[in-house]
Design a protein that fits this description.
Shape: globular
Helix content: 40-55%
Mean pLDDT: 83
Largest sheet: 4 strands, antiparallel
Strand order of the largest sheet: 1-2-3-4
Number of helices: 5
Order of helices and strands: HHHHEEEEH
Low-confidence stretches: 19-28
Length: about 140
Amino acid sequence: MLSNITMLKSLSAKAVIISATLAIALSGCQVKHEKFTTKGWDDGDGLEFPRREGMLDDLLATHKLKGLTYRQALGLLKYPQRNGVGENSMEYEITRKMDGIDTIYAKSLVLYLSPDSVVSNYKVTEKDNKEKLRLKHEKQNAEKK
């Protein structure tokens, strides 16, 4: 009887530990949504901007991007990571996941400018290269054999 109680306590403790670990792991995967601020948007080291993913929805919902002048866009979002020469655009990197030197996933906000440097349109772009990288790794492994 005593061993059954001990065994139940042990199983209960394991269940609590597993549940807590799972909860911590899942909470780390979720994006923390927050109110857009220019300072928060620009927070980062120039390569990563950890708060942008959480601010993107609020930015798009509460700020009218179309119609902003180039200077107004810079005032709101600061300097972009890339400027499109051919299509006259400004690209703000939201998130990027890497595998060595290869990009696995990238998400950006692209503002398109009219000839008079006014935001005429915008879109959120996502590039998922997981399948392409899987094929690349398979090819590299086949070449090694």
